[in-house]
Amino acid sequence: MNSIIDTHAHYHDSAFDADRHALINSLPQNGILAIINSATDLETAPDVLKLAERYPFIYATIGIHPLHVSNAPKDFSSKIQNLLKHPKVVGIGEIGLDYHYDSTNKAAQKEIFEAQLKLAVENELPVIVHDREAHDDILISLEKYRPKGVIHCFSGNLELAYKIIDLGMYIGFGGILTFKNAKITTKVAQSIPLDKLLLETDAPYLAPEPFRGQRCDSSMIAHTASKLAAIRNISVEDLLNHTKINSFNLFNFPISV
Question: CA 236 to CA 215: how far, in whole Å?
């Protein structure tokens, strides 16, 4: 496995403070070709960009996560627009809606989510979308703006997956796919077209089996890849080739990757 692209991680997270650079430096030896490191608000954006500047194989996305909308400044759109000029920024994210942890602030979440979708379309950049217990509203907004992008850590059913794919978007699978109770996610992973699959970790969160409950890092994506390949009844090498091409197509990595 030497062609793994982790399309969603958070290496600026405090969970990596003790060994961040030692860990990141070890990842290419574990088959990691590229990582997309996603900001969750404007406060974390500078740290995300610093990592992208330091490591040739790390790229950045900038955005305001739905659980951080209360901290968004009034001029968040213009601030994000300025950050998009950075040469290592390949998308807008992590953005979306989360009604699991915050169901009282739906209006503000929707407003900021749609403003960022608008920015993505205007700048011809893909989005990385967080969707937790907000499927209907996520779909309404995506149908309205029709951005390029991916639903990361997909948690919907097969019907929703095909609606997302019909919009031209991708479906991201991480460690949850390896969990024993992931029956619906497994069905989605088994059924959708290979050219719409992406691999991710959401590091430091959602480590796959057999590391469930531990801090996650990109090297663990190999376990998710093995599970997904088995579900699809193809070789791991074939799967990684497909997901690498899909990642290139969506995020437009430089040829040097």
Answer: 24
Q: Has residue 257 got a pLDDT over 70?
A: no
Residue 100 maps to a domain: yes
Burial, 101: exposed, middle or buried (Cβ in 10 Å; 0-12, 13-18, 19+)?
exposed
Strand-strand pairing, 89-98 and 32-38: unpaired
pLDDT for 84 equals 97
Domain interval for residue 44? 4-251
CATH code of residue 211: 3.20.20.140
Structural domain contains residue 257 = no
**pLDDT (mean) for 150-177:** 97
Residue 24 located in a structural domain: yes
Residues 89-131: pLDDT tens digits? Answer: 999 999 999 999 888 899 999 999 999 999 999 999 999 999 9
256 assigned to some structural domain: no
pLDDT at 134 over 70: yes
User: What share of residues in the chain are helix, strand, coil (percent, to 5)?
Assistant: 50, 20, 35
For residues 46-69, average pLDDT: 97
